[in-house]
Amino acid sequence: MNNVFNMWMGYLGRLPDLIIALLVLLVGWLIAKGIAKGVRKALRKTSLDDRLFSKMNINTQKYSSEEIISKVVFWILMIVVFVIFFNTLNMGGAVGPFTAMLNTLFGFLPNILGAVIVLAIGWIVARLVKGIVVGILTRVGTERLSAKVGLNKILEGTSLSSLIGTIVYILILIPVVITALETLELHGIAAPAIAMLNNVLTMIPNIIIAGILIAAGIWLGKWVKRIVSNLLEKVGINQFLNKIGVGNATQAGASMSPAEVLGYLAQIVVVLLFTVEALQLVGLSNVVGIINAILAYLPMVIAALVILGVGLYVANIAQKIIMSMIVQRQEAKLFGNIAKYIIIIFAVFMAVDQLQIANTVVNSAFILILGGIALAFGISFGLGGKEFAQRRLAKLEEKMDKTETKEPNKEEIKEEAKLNKNQPGVGNDNLPSTETQTTDLDDYDPNVGPFNRGPKGDL
Protein backbone atom coordinates (compact mmCIF):
# COMPACT_ATOMS: atom_id res chain seq x y z
CA MET A 1 0.00 0.00 0.00
CA ASN A 2 2.78 2.38 0.85
CA ASN A 3 4.47 1.61 -2.44
CA VAL A 4 1.37 2.50 -4.45
CA PHE A 5 0.94 5.69 -2.46
CA ASN A 6 4.53 6.66 -3.03
CA MET A 7 4.18 5.99 -6.76
CA TRP A 8 1.12 8.25 -7.08
CA MET A 9 2.78 10.92 -5.04
CA GLY A 10 5.73 10.76 -7.42
CA TYR A 11 3.39 11.25 -10.36
CA LEU A 12 1.67 14.14 -8.64
CA GLY A 13 5.07 15.64 -7.86
CA ARG A 14 5.86 15.67 -11.58
CA LEU A 15 2.49 17.16 -12.47
CA PRO A 16 3.79 20.75 -12.46
CA ASP A 17 6.53 19.77 -14.92
CA LEU A 18 3.92 18.15 -17.16
CA ILE A 19 1.70 21.23 -17.00
CA ILE A 20 4.64 23.47 -17.83
CA ALA A 21 5.67 21.18 -20.70
CA LEU A 22 2.14 21.23 -22.12
CA LEU A 23 2.06 25.00 -21.87
CA VAL A 24 5.42 25.13 -23.66
CA LEU A 25 4.06 22.87 -26.37
CA LEU A 26 0.91 24.95 -26.79
CA VAL A 27 2.72 28.26 -26.84
CA GLY A 28 5.37 26.88 -29.19
CA TRP A 29 2.70 25.55 -31.54
CA LEU A 30 0.97 28.95 -31.60
CA ILE A 31 4.25 30.74 -32.22
CA ALA A 32 5.19 28.32 -35.02
CA LYS A 33 1.79 28.74 -36.66
CA GLY A 34 2.04 32.51 -36.44
CA ILE A 35 5.55 32.62 -37.90
CA ALA A 36 4.54 30.23 -40.71
CA LYS A 37 1.52 32.38 -41.52
CA GLY A 38 3.67 35.51 -41.58
CA VAL A 39 6.17 33.82 -43.89
CA ARG A 40 3.34 32.78 -46.22
CA LYS A 41 1.96 36.32 -46.41
CA ALA A 42 5.41 37.80 -46.98
CA LEU A 43 6.18 35.37 -49.78
CA ARG A 44 2.89 36.08 -51.53
CA LYS A 45 3.95 39.71 -51.89
CA THR A 46 7.13 38.72 -53.73
CA SER A 47 7.89 36.46 -56.70
CA LEU A 48 11.31 35.35 -55.48
CA ASP A 49 10.07 31.96 -54.30
CA ASP A 50 8.27 31.32 -57.61
CA ARG A 51 11.40 32.02 -59.63
CA LEU A 52 13.44 29.84 -57.28
CA PHE A 53 11.04 26.91 -57.54
CA SER A 54 10.79 27.24 -61.34
CA LYS A 55 14.57 27.08 -61.67
CA MET A 56 14.65 24.04 -59.35
CA ASN A 57 11.86 22.34 -61.39
CA ILE A 58 9.68 21.81 -58.29
CA ASN A 59 6.03 21.00 -59.01
CA THR A 60 3.76 23.61 -57.40
CA GLN A 61 0.41 22.43 -58.77
CA LYS A 62 -0.77 20.75 -55.54
CA TYR A 63 0.95 23.08 -53.11
CA SER A 64 2.13 26.57 -53.85
CA SER A 65 5.67 27.64 -53.13
CA GLU A 66 4.45 29.82 -50.23
CA GLU A 67 2.70 26.87 -48.57
CA ILE A 68 5.71 24.60 -48.97
CA ILE A 69 8.13 27.12 -47.46
CA SER A 70 5.75 28.02 -44.62
CA LYS A 71 5.26 24.35 -43.73
CA VAL A 72 9.01 23.80 -43.67
CA VAL A 73 9.43 26.77 -41.32
CA PHE A 74 6.57 25.49 -39.13
CA TRP A 75 8.03 22.03 -38.65
CA ILE A 76 11.53 23.35 -37.98
CA LEU A 77 10.07 25.48 -35.19
CA MET A 78 8.05 22.53 -33.91
CA ILE A 79 11.22 20.45 -33.63
CA VAL A 80 12.60 23.15 -31.37
CA VAL A 81 9.36 23.13 -29.36
CA PHE A 82 9.45 19.34 -28.97
CA VAL A 83 13.04 19.47 -27.74
CA ILE A 84 12.07 22.06 -25.10
CA PHE A 85 8.98 19.98 -24.23
CA PHE A 86 10.96 16.81 -23.53
CA ASN A 87 13.68 18.66 -21.67
CA THR A 88 10.99 20.17 -19.40
CA LEU A 89 9.87 16.64 -18.59
CA ASN A 90 13.49 15.67 -17.80
CA MET A 91 13.49 13.30 -20.79
CA GLY A 92 16.52 14.80 -22.55
CA GLY A 93 17.92 11.38 -23.48
CA ALA A 94 15.02 10.76 -25.86
CA VAL A 95 15.72 13.92 -27.79
CA GLY A 96 19.51 13.92 -27.47
CA PRO A 97 20.18 13.68 -31.26
CA PHE A 98 17.68 16.46 -31.95
CA THR A 99 19.26 18.59 -29.27
CA ALA A 100 22.73 18.12 -30.76
CA MET A 101 21.37 18.91 -34.22
CA LEU A 102 19.68 22.07 -33.03
CA ASN A 103 22.76 23.17 -31.14
CA THR A 104 24.83 22.72 -34.30
CA LEU A 105 22.21 24.50 -36.39
CA PHE A 106 21.89 27.45 -34.05
CA GLY A 107 25.64 27.61 -33.66
CA PHE A 108 25.99 27.74 -37.46
CA LEU A 109 23.23 30.30 -37.97
CA PRO A 110 25.52 33.32 -37.47
CA ASN A 111 27.84 32.03 -40.20
CA ILE A 112 24.90 31.49 -42.55
CA LEU A 113 23.50 34.93 -41.83
CA GLY A 114 26.92 36.50 -42.34
CA ALA A 115 27.41 34.72 -45.68
CA VAL A 116 23.92 35.73 -46.83
CA ILE A 117 24.56 39.35 -45.87
CA VAL A 118 27.91 39.36 -47.70
CA LEU A 119 26.36 37.84 -50.82
CA ALA A 120 23.44 40.27 -50.75
CA ILE A 121 25.67 43.33 -50.39
CA GLY A 122 28.08 42.07 -53.05
CA TRP A 123 25.24 41.30 -55.45
CA ILE A 124 23.74 44.77 -54.99
CA VAL A 125 27.12 46.45 -55.51
CA ALA A 126 27.86 44.31 -58.58
CA ARG A 127 24.48 45.19 -60.11
CA LEU A 128 25.02 48.90 -59.51
CA VAL A 129 28.53 48.87 -60.95
CA LYS A 130 27.35 46.88 -63.97
CA GLY A 131 24.63 49.42 -64.71
CA ILE A 132 27.08 52.31 -64.36
CA VAL A 133 29.65 50.68 -66.66
CA VAL A 134 27.05 49.80 -69.31
CA GLY A 135 25.67 53.35 -69.28
CA ILE A 136 29.09 54.97 -69.58
CA LEU A 137 30.22 52.66 -72.40
CA THR A 138 26.98 53.18 -74.31
CA ARG A 139 27.38 56.95 -74.16
CA VAL A 140 31.04 56.76 -75.16
CA GLY A 141 30.10 54.91 -78.37
CA THR A 142 31.40 51.37 -77.95
CA GLU A 143 28.61 50.06 -80.18
CA ARG A 144 29.93 52.00 -83.16
CA LEU A 145 33.42 50.68 -82.44
CA SER A 146 32.19 47.08 -82.26
CA ALA A 147 30.32 47.58 -85.55
CA LYS A 148 33.49 48.84 -87.25
CA VAL A 149 35.58 45.97 -85.91
CA GLY A 150 32.90 43.42 -86.80
CA LEU A 151 32.13 42.14 -83.30
CA ASN A 152 28.37 42.50 -83.80
CA LYS A 153 28.26 39.33 -85.89
CA ILE A 154 30.23 37.43 -83.26
CA LEU A 155 28.24 38.72 -80.27
CA GLU A 156 24.93 37.87 -82.02
CA GLY A 157 22.58 40.42 -80.50
CA THR A 158 24.56 41.16 -77.34
CA SER A 159 26.02 44.64 -77.24
CA LEU A 160 29.67 45.19 -76.43
CA SER A 161 28.82 47.47 -73.50
CA SER A 162 26.57 44.85 -71.89
CA LEU A 163 29.27 42.22 -72.40
CA ILE A 164 31.87 44.38 -70.64
CA GLY A 165 29.33 45.16 -67.89
CA THR A 166 28.72 41.44 -67.35
CA ILE A 167 32.46 40.83 -67.12
CA VAL A 168 32.77 43.57 -64.48
CA TYR A 169 29.77 42.08 -62.65
CA ILE A 170 31.46 38.67 -62.53
CA LEU A 171 34.78 40.17 -61.43
CA ILE A 172 33.05 41.81 -58.47
CA LEU A 173 31.09 38.71 -57.51
CA ILE A 174 34.11 36.39 -57.47
CA PRO A 175 35.78 37.97 -54.39
CA VAL A 176 32.32 38.34 -52.80
CA VAL A 177 31.70 34.61 -53.16
CA ILE A 178 35.17 33.88 -51.78
CA THR A 179 34.42 36.02 -48.71
CA ALA A 180 31.02 34.34 -48.21
CA LEU A 181 32.59 30.88 -48.36
CA GLU A 182 35.22 31.91 -45.85
CA THR A 183 32.46 33.21 -43.57
CA LEU A 184 30.74 29.81 -43.62
CA GLU A 185 33.94 28.15 -42.33
CA LEU A 186 33.15 24.97 -44.26
CA HIS A 187 36.75 24.14 -44.97
CA GLY A 188 36.05 20.82 -46.70
CA ILE A 189 33.77 22.49 -49.24
CA ALA A 190 35.00 26.05 -49.22
CA ALA A 191 38.75 25.38 -49.56
CA PRO A 192 38.62 23.86 -53.09
CA ALA A 193 36.10 26.46 -54.25
CA ILE A 194 38.22 29.29 -52.85
CA ALA A 195 41.34 27.87 -54.53
CA MET A 196 39.49 27.65 -57.86
CA LEU A 197 38.21 31.20 -57.58
CA ASN A 198 41.69 32.44 -56.67
CA ASN A 199 43.04 30.74 -59.79
CA VAL A 200 40.32 32.45 -61.83
CA LEU A 201 41.29 35.81 -60.35
CA THR A 202 44.93 35.10 -61.17
CA MET A 203 44.05 34.21 -64.75
CA ILE A 204 41.81 37.23 -65.30
CA PRO A 205 44.66 39.49 -66.59
CA ASN A 206 45.75 36.79 -69.02
CA ILE A 207 42.14 36.26 -70.09
CA ILE A 208 41.75 39.99 -70.76
CA ILE A 209 44.97 40.07 -72.80
CA ALA A 210 43.85 36.94 -74.67
CA GLY A 211 40.54 38.60 -75.51
CA ILE A 212 42.37 41.68 -76.77
CA LEU A 213 44.61 39.47 -78.92
CA ILE A 214 41.65 37.65 -80.44
CA ALA A 215 39.88 40.95 -81.15
CA ALA A 216 43.06 42.29 -82.77
CA GLY A 217 43.33 39.09 -84.82
CA ILE A 218 39.76 39.47 -86.05
CA TRP A 219 40.36 43.09 -87.03
CA LEU A 220 43.69 42.31 -88.74
CA GLY A 221 42.13 39.28 -90.42
CA LYS A 222 39.44 41.45 -92.00
CA TRP A 223 42.11 43.82 -93.25
CA VAL A 224 44.17 40.93 -94.69
CA LYS A 225 41.05 39.46 -96.28
CA ARG A 226 40.28 42.72 -98.05
CA ILE A 227 43.87 43.11 -99.32
CA VAL A 228 44.19 39.49 -100.49
CA SER A 229 40.81 39.53 -102.24
CA ASN A 230 41.52 42.78 -104.08
CA LEU A 231 45.03 41.65 -105.04
CA LEU A 232 43.84 38.30 -106.39
CA GLU A 233 41.04 39.95 -108.35
CA LYS A 234 43.51 42.35 -109.97
CA VAL A 235 45.88 39.48 -110.78
CA GLY A 236 42.99 37.67 -112.49
CA ILE A 237 42.59 34.62 -110.29
CA ASN A 238 38.85 34.48 -110.98
CA GLN A 239 39.36 34.30 -114.75
CA PHE A 240 42.19 31.79 -114.35
CA LEU A 241 40.10 29.46 -112.21
CA ASN A 242 37.25 29.88 -114.66
CA LYS A 243 39.51 28.79 -117.52
CA ILE A 244 40.74 25.67 -115.77
CA GLY A 245 37.17 24.77 -114.86
CA VAL A 246 37.36 25.11 -111.08
CA GLY A 247 34.48 27.57 -110.86
CA ASN A 248 32.81 30.43 -112.62
CA ALA A 249 33.43 33.65 -110.74
CA THR A 250 30.64 35.39 -112.61
CA GLN A 251 28.07 32.63 -112.13
CA ALA A 252 24.63 33.89 -111.22
CA GLY A 253 23.75 33.31 -107.59
CA ALA A 254 27.36 32.84 -106.47
CA SER A 255 27.71 34.29 -102.98
CA MET A 256 31.51 34.56 -103.04
CA SER A 257 34.04 34.70 -105.85
CA PRO A 258 37.18 32.52 -105.73
CA ALA A 259 39.26 35.56 -104.77
CA GLU A 260 36.93 36.28 -101.86
CA VAL A 261 37.10 32.63 -100.75
CA LEU A 262 40.90 32.75 -100.71
CA GLY A 263 40.77 36.05 -98.83
CA TYR A 264 38.44 34.48 -96.28
CA LEU A 265 40.88 31.57 -95.84
CA ALA A 266 43.68 34.08 -95.27
CA GLN A 267 41.54 35.75 -92.60
CA ILE A 268 40.98 32.40 -90.88
CA VAL A 269 44.74 31.73 -90.83
CA VAL A 270 45.44 35.13 -89.27
CA VAL A 271 42.75 34.63 -86.62
CA LEU A 272 44.13 31.16 -85.84
CA LEU A 273 47.62 32.58 -85.34
CA PHE A 274 46.35 35.15 -82.85
CA THR A 275 44.16 32.52 -81.20
CA VAL A 276 47.20 30.30 -80.62
CA GLU A 277 48.96 33.12 -78.79
CA ALA A 278 45.82 33.85 -76.75
CA LEU A 279 45.42 30.20 -75.76
CA GLN A 280 49.06 30.01 -74.73
CA LEU A 281 48.47 32.91 -72.35
CA VAL A 282 45.45 31.17 -70.86
CA GLY A 283 47.38 27.90 -70.57
CA LEU A 284 45.33 25.64 -72.84
CA SER A 285 48.32 23.76 -74.20
CA ASN A 286 46.29 20.85 -75.63
CA VAL A 287 44.19 23.14 -77.81
CA VAL A 288 47.35 25.02 -78.83
CA GLY A 289 48.90 21.74 -79.98
CA ILE A 290 45.86 20.93 -82.13
CA ILE A 291 45.84 24.36 -83.79
CA ASN A 292 49.61 24.21 -84.37
CA ALA A 293 49.18 20.85 -86.08
CA ILE A 294 46.49 22.35 -88.32
CA LEU A 295 48.67 25.33 -89.19
CA ALA A 296 51.65 23.05 -89.90
CA TYR A 297 49.50 21.02 -92.31
CA LEU A 298 48.25 24.07 -94.21
CA PRO A 299 51.34 24.39 -96.49
CA MET A 300 50.81 20.83 -97.69
CA VAL A 301 47.17 21.59 -98.44
CA ILE A 302 48.13 24.75 -100.34
CA ALA A 303 50.77 22.84 -102.33
CA ALA A 304 48.23 20.12 -103.16
CA LEU A 305 45.73 22.73 -104.34
CA VAL A 306 48.41 24.37 -106.49
CA ILE A 307 49.28 21.00 -108.03
CA LEU A 308 45.62 20.33 -108.77
CA GLY A 309 45.19 23.78 -110.30
CA VAL A 310 48.24 23.43 -112.51
CA GLY A 311 47.15 19.91 -113.48
CA LEU A 312 43.70 21.12 -114.50
CA TYR A 313 45.22 23.99 -116.46
CA VAL A 314 47.67 21.72 -118.31
CA ALA A 315 44.91 19.15 -118.92
CA ASN A 316 42.67 21.74 -120.57
CA ILE A 317 45.55 23.01 -122.73
CA ALA A 318 46.46 19.47 -123.81
CA GLN A 319 42.83 18.74 -124.65
CA LYS A 320 42.56 21.84 -126.82
CA ILE A 321 45.86 21.12 -128.62
CA ILE A 322 44.92 17.52 -129.40
CA MET A 323 41.44 18.48 -130.56
CA SER A 324 42.90 21.12 -132.87
CA MET A 325 45.34 18.62 -134.42
CA ILE A 326 42.72 15.98 -135.34
CA VAL A 327 40.28 16.71 -138.15
CA GLN A 328 37.50 14.27 -137.22
CA ARG A 329 35.36 15.75 -134.48
CA GLN A 330 34.48 12.56 -132.59
CA GLU A 331 38.03 11.21 -132.65
CA ALA A 332 39.36 14.62 -131.62
CA LYS A 333 36.98 14.77 -128.66
CA LEU A 334 37.82 11.20 -127.63
CA PHE A 335 41.61 11.61 -127.69
CA GLY A 336 41.37 15.07 -126.13
CA ASN A 337 39.34 13.73 -123.19
CA ILE A 338 41.71 10.79 -122.77
CA ALA A 339 44.72 13.11 -122.54
CA LYS A 340 42.84 15.48 -120.22
CA TYR A 341 41.77 12.85 -117.72
CA ILE A 342 45.14 11.11 -117.73
CA ILE A 343 46.79 14.39 -116.75
CA ILE A 344 44.10 15.02 -114.10
CA ILE A 345 44.67 11.54 -112.63
CA PHE A 346 48.40 12.23 -112.46
CA ALA A 347 47.70 15.58 -110.75
CA VAL A 348 45.32 13.98 -108.24
CA PHE A 349 47.87 11.33 -107.28
CA MET A 350 50.58 13.96 -106.92
CA ALA A 351 48.27 16.09 -104.75
CA VAL A 352 47.34 13.16 -102.51
CA ASP A 353 51.01 12.24 -102.19
CA GLN A 354 51.74 15.84 -101.21
CA LEU A 355 49.10 15.58 -98.49
CA GLN A 356 50.93 12.49 -97.15
CA ILE A 357 47.74 10.48 -96.88
CA ALA A 358 48.61 6.76 -96.92
CA ASN A 359 51.73 7.21 -99.03
CA THR A 360 52.34 3.49 -99.52
CA VAL A 361 48.77 2.82 -100.65
CA VAL A 362 48.71 5.85 -102.96
CA ASN A 363 52.06 5.00 -104.57
CA SER A 364 51.10 1.36 -105.02
CA ALA A 365 47.77 2.33 -106.57
CA PHE A 366 49.50 4.78 -108.90
CA ILE A 367 52.02 2.16 -110.03
CA LEU A 368 49.26 -0.40 -110.56
CA ILE A 369 47.16 2.02 -112.59
CA LEU A 370 50.15 3.13 -114.66
CA GLY A 371 51.20 -0.48 -115.26
CA GLY A 372 47.65 -1.42 -116.18
CA ILE A 373 47.44 1.42 -118.69
CA ALA A 374 50.79 0.43 -120.23
CA LEU A 375 49.79 -3.23 -120.38
CA ALA A 376 46.43 -2.40 -121.93
CA PHE A 377 48.12 -0.14 -124.47
CA GLY A 378 50.67 -2.83 -125.33
CA ILE A 379 48.05 -5.54 -125.69
CA SER A 380 45.75 -3.35 -127.75
CA PHE A 381 48.63 -2.19 -129.96
CA GLY A 382 49.87 -5.74 -130.43
CA LEU A 383 46.48 -7.18 -131.26
CA GLY A 384 45.45 -4.23 -133.36
CA GLY A 385 48.75 -4.09 -135.29
CA LYS A 386 48.95 -7.80 -136.03
CA GLU A 387 47.51 -7.55 -139.53
CA PHE A 388 49.51 -4.42 -140.29
CA ALA A 389 52.79 -6.13 -139.33
CA GLN A 390 51.82 -9.25 -141.30
CA ARG A 391 51.21 -7.20 -144.45
CA ARG A 392 54.52 -5.37 -144.11
CA LEU A 393 56.49 -8.58 -143.62
CA ALA A 394 54.78 -10.17 -146.64
CA LYS A 395 55.71 -7.19 -148.82
CA LEU A 396 59.34 -7.36 -147.63
CA GLU A 397 59.54 -11.06 -148.39
CA GLU A 398 58.05 -10.49 -151.82
CA LYS A 399 60.68 -7.86 -152.64
CA MET A 400 63.48 -10.16 -151.52
CA ASP A 401 62.15 -12.97 -153.69
CA LYS A 402 62.06 -10.69 -156.75
CA THR A 403 65.69 -9.65 -156.31
CA GLU A 404 67.95 -11.31 -159.08
CA THR A 405 71.74 -11.59 -159.43
CA LYS A 406 73.94 -12.26 -162.55
CA GLU A 407 77.58 -13.13 -163.31
CA PRO A 408 79.90 -10.27 -164.25
CA ASN A 409 80.91 -10.01 -167.98
CA LYS A 410 84.73 -10.20 -168.32
CA GLU A 411 84.79 -8.61 -171.76
CA GLU A 412 82.91 -5.55 -170.53
CA ILE A 413 85.30 -5.18 -167.60
CA LYS A 414 88.33 -5.36 -169.99
CA GLU A 415 86.89 -2.75 -172.30
CA GLU A 416 86.20 -0.44 -169.39
CA ALA A 417 89.74 -0.86 -168.10
CA LYS A 418 91.22 0.01 -171.54
CA LEU A 419 89.12 3.11 -171.79
CA ASN A 420 90.29 4.26 -168.37
CA LYS A 421 93.93 3.65 -169.37
CA ASN A 422 93.71 5.64 -172.59
CA GLN A 423 92.13 8.60 -170.80
CA PRO A 424 94.82 10.50 -168.89
CA GLY A 425 94.01 11.53 -165.29
CA VAL A 426 91.14 9.08 -164.95
CA GLY A 427 92.23 6.53 -162.39
CA ASN A 428 95.66 5.75 -164.02
CA ASP A 429 97.74 6.45 -160.95
CA ASN A 430 96.34 3.70 -158.83
CA LEU A 431 95.52 1.16 -161.56
CA PRO A 432 97.82 -1.85 -162.00
CA SER A 433 99.42 -2.71 -165.33
CA THR A 434 97.40 -4.18 -168.23
CA GLU A 435 99.05 -7.48 -167.87
CA THR A 436 98.32 -7.66 -164.24
CA GLN A 437 94.75 -6.69 -164.85
CA THR A 438 94.36 -9.23 -167.61
CA THR A 439 95.86 -11.91 -165.48
CA ASP A 440 93.51 -11.02 -162.66
CA LEU A 441 90.52 -11.10 -164.94
CA ASP A 442 91.62 -14.37 -166.52
CA ASP A 443 91.91 -15.89 -163.06
CA TYR A 444 88.54 -14.50 -161.94
CA ASP A 445 86.20 -17.13 -160.67
CA PRO A 446 82.60 -16.00 -160.37
CA ASN A 447 82.01 -18.53 -157.58
CA VAL A 448 84.77 -17.05 -155.38
CA GLY A 449 84.80 -13.42 -154.34
CA PRO A 450 84.39 -11.04 -151.52
CA PHE A 451 80.64 -11.67 -151.45
CA ASN A 452 80.93 -15.47 -151.99
CA ARG A 453 78.37 -15.45 -154.72
CA GLY A 454 76.86 -18.76 -155.40
CA PRO A 455 74.83 -19.87 -158.35
CA LYS A 456 72.66 -17.44 -160.18
CA GLY A 457 69.93 -16.01 -158.06
CA ASP A 458 71.27 -17.36 -154.72
CA LEU A 459 72.57 -15.25 -151.85
Task: Characterise this structure.
Keywords: Membrane, Transmembrane, Transmembrane helix. The protein has 459 residues and is mainly alpha-helical. It is built from 17 helices and no strands. It has a domain at 13-94. It has helices spanning 2-13, 15-44, 48-55, 65-88, 96-140, 142-149, 151-155, 160-184, 187-235, 237-243, 258-282, 285-325, 329-354, 359-384, 386-402, 410-422, 434-442. Helix 9 packs antiparallel against helix 11 (258-282), helix 11 packs antiparallel against helix 12 and helix 13 runs antiparallel to helix 14 (359-384). Residues 426-444 and 446-459 have low confidence and may be disordered.
Strand composition percent? under 5%
Structural class: mainly alpha
What is the strand tally? 0
What string, H for helix and E for strand, traces the elements in order? HHHHHHHHHHHHHHHHH
Task: Give start-end ranges of low-pLDDT stretches.
Answer: 426-444, 446-459
How widely separated are the two ends? 169 Å
Morphology = elongated
Question: Largest sheet at a glance?
Answer: none
> Given the structure, what is the number of helices?
17
Radius of gyration: 54 Å
Mean pLDDT: 74
The helix content is over 70%
Protein name: Mechanosensitive ion channel
Organism: Alkalihalophilus sp. As8PL
Keywords: Membrane, Transmembrane, Transmembrane helix
GO molecular function: mechanosensitive monoatomic ion channel activity
